[in-house]
Amino acid sequence: MKRIAGILLIAMIGGAVSLGLYKAIEKKQYSFSSRPDGIPIRQVGYNPSAAFNQPDFEAAAAVSIHAVVHIKSEFQKKSLVYDDFFEFFNFGGRPQPREYSTPYSAMGSGVIVSQDGYIVTNNHVVQEATDVTITLNDKREYKATIIGTDPSTDLALIKIDEQGLPFLTYGNSDEVKIGEWVLAVGNPFNLTSTVTAGIVSAKARNINILGSQGAIESFIQTDAAVNPGNSGGALVNTRGELVGINAAIASGTGYYTGYSFAIPVNIVRKVVGDFMKFGKIQRAYLGVFYREIDDQFAKEKGFTDLRGIYIDDVVESGPASLAGVKSGDVIIRIDNNPVNGKAELMEMIGQKNPGDKVTMIVMRDGKEYEMALTMQSEDSKLIAEKGNKIIIQGATFEALSSNEKARLNVDYGFKITSLANGKLKSAGISAGFILLSVDRKPLRSTQDLRETLSNRQGGVLIEGLYPNGLRAYYGIGL
């Protein structure tokens, strides 16, 4: 019995020692120290199990690399926009297009979005390309056809003749959160199938790179490394869903310095769907002139709340006007999504189609009002008439009077009496300019004016003169 009792005593002592050691380790992991004021501070020590809670990118990378392609585009002249997406802090002055005796090549990336060969990429990767070659991750090569390009979003849809291809599924960029892990997948410096990781640093960034008046800029900003060649590649979440198309970096050198930007996938889905279904973009418009609210403007207007977008004016018979929106209203929500800046507003409207129903909440005289809008086609904003005036592309035109014709020694023409934001103003045209012809076609009637400025796509040459007799020419993309 004494022997058994001794064994039990030894076992109990051993257990007590083990328990004490465990408690000591536990206290070392979570020990407390004190601030000078005596308040304890918990200090967390190393916890081996925490290593297993780190984000895992393996599955997302495995899916993505097979759906991201290498693009080689050949041009007879160097694109004016390609380099700007990697040096957008260094515009300075853009070089004129230069003709090459042999084709100039540029590299980029693209994302397969359907098993039958549709690929989305950046417009600046394939714009004006004479030949586009696609290389899959398994090294198969194909010639691609350009289905459509959209400079206002910097997106393009191309296609190769193949079936059964791996493709990425769309995520929802509205649900992407700041701080969320993402992967950038592409072909930087011609290195195929490169994956980098980072977090979402910001949303709804407007970096003023697309240039045109109707540009939709609401980029997702990340710190995932992106370099020349990544353009058109995928930004994916940890589930392997496509949440953006990589487009640009902020850099003074043309190489990655910590900031990269991607086009939200909800805009991508809209553009791709329009090209597949209609062959062109079906863009909706709101029919308002607006400005962002900053602290100084809020003080001028006596606002105590800096939320929302201030409405300077509404377009007569436009969606907002018909719904009851007035000048001086402040848009604070669209479809229950907060609106606090131009980029957010443009992104929301850019996802809509003509005919879509939209619920808008505006602030008026300190009270909230709900407005039900039906979106109209962007084409419908190009022409409106008020008495003897005609409004096209944001410019108000009047036919020249007999006295004006005699003084200027012309037989026809239309004078711009006022000029709002639009493509004409963006091109440098000023109020008072007299339009005489578009693409050498004389403007002898309002019908001529309608046809030449509202039913055209691509670039046009505008010729006219100013009241002092100075002739001027403008090239404008419609």
Describe, in plain words, how this protein is organized in 3D.
By secondary structure, the protein is an alpha+beta fold. The protein has 3 domains: 55-281, Thrombin, subunit H; 284-379, PDZ domain (Pdz3 Domain), CATH 2.30.42.10; 382-477, PDZ domain (Pdz3 Domain). Helix content is 20%, strand content 36%. The protein has 10 helices and 31 strands. Strands 24, 25, 26, 27, 28, 29, 30 and 31 form an 8-stranded antiparallel beta sheet that branches. Strands 7-6-3-4-5-9-8 form a 7-stranded antiparallel beta sheet. A 6-stranded antiparallel β-barrel has the order 10-11-12-15-14-13. The longest helix has 28 residues, at 2-29. The radius of gyration is 30 Å and the shape is globular. Mean pLDDT is 80; it is low at 21-37, 39-46, 80-100 and 382-387.
> Which residue ranges are poorly predicted, with pLDDT under 50 across at least 5 consecutive positions?
21-37, 39-46, 80-100, 382-387
Query: Which CATH architecture of the largest domain would you pick?
Result: Beta Barrel
Quick one: biggest sheet? Answer: 8 strands, antiparallel
Considering DSSP H and I runs of 4 or more, what fraction of the residues is helical?
A: 10-25%
**CATH top level class name of the largest domain:** Mainly Beta
CATH topology of the largest domain: Thrombin, subunit H
Query: What shape does the CA trace take?
Result: globular
Specify the number of helices: 10
- Radius of gyration equals 30 Å
Count of the domains: 3
Strand elements, count: 31
Mean pLDDT: 80
N→C terminal distance = 103 Å
Structural class: alpha+beta
- Note the beta-strand portion: 35-45%
